[in-house]
């Protein structure tokens, strides 16, 4: 049993340490963007500077109105062409449409809003399922000490698995909510490491003798 326990805690330790360093790297050291963004993606700076979802929505609403007006004008022009029998201009594909204004800005802002909402959802899930993992871990440690070591170890493993999964790296994002998610994952990774060390000490995992 000790051999299995040692293997589990070593793997958990390696996973949590690597994730913690990666979160720290993404927060403080990872290069973001390019010096050419101000030419190719001028809207990106506004999106990154937004401090709330409401701020993004305020930026999105006037651009969306421009897009709706542009599409209405295009539809009217196409209808007038059909009525007069004059060949209509070729219809712009979605891929082409999103490369010109105001369609390009509308797509970038809409993607940023969707990303913000997704990251908010991930933060909520992180808090909930990490708490579930904590309850499993505490229950497992109690059972390990006073009743059934195998059942206790199973629950400890389940708790550690929740910690590792829900603090795993997030790879994509370009809003303040993405940074908030990284901060939460970094915090919970550090707490998870502390709890893992507490499990190792309490269960005397690497002691020469079993309790």
In summary, what is this structure?
With 211 residues, the chain is mainly α.
Low-confidence regions: none
User: What is the number of E strands?
Assistant: 0
* SS strand fraction: under 5%
Largest sheet data: none
- End-to-end gap: 12 Å
User: Helices and strands: which structural class?
Assistant: mainly alpha
Helix content: over 70%
Mean pLDDT: 88
N-to-C SSE string, H for helix and E for strand: HHHHHHHH
* Radius of gyration computed on alpha carbons: 26 Å
The general outline is: elongated
Report the total helices.
Answer: 8
Outline the secondary-structure elements.
Blueprint: H1 2-28, H2 37-40, H3 42-49, H4 53-84, H5 94-97, H6 103-146, H7 149-166, H8 176-203
What does this structure look like?
The structure is a single chain. With 211 residues, the protein is an all-alpha fold. The chain has a domain at 2-51 and 112-203. It contains 8 helices and no strands. The two termini are 12 Å apart. The model has no long low-confidence stretch (mean pLDDT 88).
Features:
single chain, 211 residues, mainly alpha, elongated
